[in-house]
Design a protein that fits this description.
- The chain contains three helices and two strands; from the N terminus they run βαβαα.
- With 87 residues, the chain is of the alpha+beta class.
- The chain has a two-stranded parallel sheet with strand order 1-2.
- The model has no long low-confidence stretch (mean pLDDT 89).
């Protein structure tokens, strides 16, 4: 598990995701913060929330719905920005 934390991390969570509940976001952030407080050197973590962000929003969203289209486009931008920065 220690190797997991040695790489920058970008996460995107859907506010209305039934497969991965939005409450997981807080749990992940709490673990990350606790490790930092313990003195561990941790990489940057970006954790964005997409609304409505139903399960599979980044690949199965409805491009005809303005809110779902925004989730599709914003999550793609998030991924491309991450790759541009770290690879």
């Amino acid at each position: 598990m220690s190797r997991l934390w040695s790489y920058p991390l970008a996460l995107g969570g859907g506010l209305e995701d039934t497969g991965v509940k939005i409450e997981q976001k807080g749990k992940v952030e709490k673990i990350h913060e606790k490790a930092k407080e313990a003195g561990r050197k941790l990489p940057e973590m970006e954790h964005k929330v997409y609304k409505p962000g139903r399960h599979g929003f980044a690949v199965r969203g409805n491009p005809d719905d303005p809110l779902e289209r925004a989730c599709l486009e914003d999550s793609m931008t998030q991924a491309l920005n991450w790759f541009g920065r770290w690879l």
